[in-house]
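TEACHING EXERCISE
Course module: macromolecular assemblies
Task: Read the component lines below, then compare them to the predicted structure of the full complex.
Student: A.B.
Group: 4
Components provided:
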Amino acid sequence: MSDQKNSTHAKDTGHTWDDNLRELTNQPPRWWMISFYLSLAWVVVYFVLFPALPLANSYTKGILDWTQMKEFQGDLAELEKIRAPFETRIAKMPVSAILGDKELSNYSVQSAKVLFGDRCAPCHGNGGAGNPGFPVLADDDWLFGGKIEQIHQSIMNGRRGSMPGFATNSTPAEIDLLAQHVLALSEGGSNPVGRNLFVNKGCAGCHGMDGKGLEMMGSANLTDKIWRFSPVTKDSVKHTISHGVNNAMDKNTRNAVMPSFAQQLSDAEIKKLAVYVHQLGGGK
Amino acid sequence: MESKDSAHIDQSGIDSLYAEIDYWHVNTGEQTIHAKRMPGRFRTIKWITSSVWILFFLGPYLRWNGQQAVLFDIAGRQFHIFNLTILPQDIWMLALVLLFFSLLLAAVTSIAGRVYCGYFCFQTVWTDVFIWLEEKLEGHPSKRMKLDKAPWNFYKIRIKTIKHILWLVIGVLTGISFTLWFADAYTMWASYFSFDAPMVAWITVGTFTFFTYLFAGHMREQVCFWLCPYARIQGVMADATTIMPTYDLARGEPRGKLKKKSVTEGGQQGDCIDCKQCVAVCPTGIDIRNGQQEGCITCALCIDACDAVMDKISRPHGLIRYASLKELDGAPALPLYKRPRVIVYFSFLALILAGLIYGITHLGFLELKILHERQPLYVQQSDGSIQNKYVLKILNKTDQVMSVNVSATGLEQLELQGVESAFQLSPGRVNAFTVFIRVAPEHIHQGRTAVDFVVHDINQPDIRVNYQSMFFAPNPP
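Instructor-supplied answer key:
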């Protein structure tokens, strides 16, 4: 068929190149023309249905009143509908019961992942891996307790470590001895002279006679392998003993403040985060 | 060539063939082909091979253990084929199945041309059924051509309406039957009658109806000519040893109309009496005497037609026959097993088949993947031990809840935590669990140690699956 149309008898525009290249006036195929006119008609339909023309301060809205944002919000509402039964239960239940419920704790872990990334990971690291100066959340050593309720409290109200500096009332030698004792404690040993100082200087008042710390006060357990302030060197330990933690009198003091999230997050969000942190690997 | 024996030729039968000769034209795509239908060996074969499509219509009603025997449950992400349940994780076998059939198509084409087109293709089969209906309603081809040209009267409108309605009914049935493979057949029928079938089902039925009606009713051989890629690539699949319906040029030429005089002349004329019966019966309207061409779907109906004519003029069958180009040249054909193409194709087919058999026999009941936590890779605990976190993804391929135990080996005194109670696996899906491994530092001798996890069914301990993961720790000094 095409051969016939390109024959010498076909009509042309009169333009000829290179002796025999002619521009023919054949019609495009009918199916092509039909789709062409249909697409033109669709343009009109589209302009009527959807936002199309920019105006001075606005744009033509289209009779469907469709916007990308509305579609997104519709999808989000659908998602919320799926989440609603979990969320309402979480809002009503105490956090320990949520942890006990396999379905809800699974949901919490999945759902709090993004929250953790946004709110917690900047200091505590992805997966609670910790950062210099910020505690690891994936281990089993907790300053303020690793029970689900205690974690919940920590997130809700924040925590503030506190330790006086001993530089003002101790000699460098004493501080050195104290540091030796503390380092020995974590290896399961002790320094007899340092131990006396530990009691006399009042360290035992917060860290306990055995140095295991008190969750009530958030004082660190000195007998385990986990250190609040890294790197773990004698100088670092001496610095902490000398200048204390959050000691307003000393500008070289250690900072150890966990903010409160009660204002920033909803009750349910905090519960979900508590479950998430508890499941990181160290919850008790 | 021996002289023709005029005593056995029924000249009136031949004359009737020539009388209709003006009806038969080679297809140029500008008019509807009204092919003549006549009984014969290949016609019978064609009906038999076409009937495999009955399976398409009746298959969904087959039951097996109280369930639909073959069900491609897309929404549930499961394929049920008799006893087998195939989950998305095993879908690589589908790729093998597709590969198998596409290679089979090529392999068969290299041996015997477009067997699929002529005998099995839905386009051929549906068109054939549509034309069969047309012939029942409107009569044989010359009548149909007259009817097409006739002015619209009550008779024509009635006949044409009935025909198109029947075509559409076949189209609807085709569409519905297709959807029945993807949902429970009886429930689906009920939902069609109560008009609450899902939208996708209606769209599918609509699409199938439209294209069945368009392709089998109106476009017919034009689909084979212009839409189907297979017609265009068969040239590279066939070779000189491929057998296809072929006109024996040496025997047939010079062709000429059979007249009483010419018969007695003897030896001057070939066996082809130019009756155009081969063109008449051709569903794609080609002239096979011009040699192999893209329009030939190798349905072999021209062989039936020519053999019938040869009977009439008392010449042996096979002026048009299944033959290779080599055979026509008089060269001996290589046996099948010595042709390189055949060997290559069939060794690939055998490989794919072996893969499929392996897949089906090794489906298993459990599948285990373990993701080691990357951040942090390891955590030091207060007693100095190192803890690693793992997420176990366990797929339960059975249709029942499974209770499984998890164990791990690889390091001395490793402590597996989070496995205090047995894991319950929901059927047909991946279940995720978090476990921890804790090892005291004195048992860690390297930064990375391989750990073998084993998951086994509590009730049937031989249903087990293992996976090797890693235990990470700081490099010992």
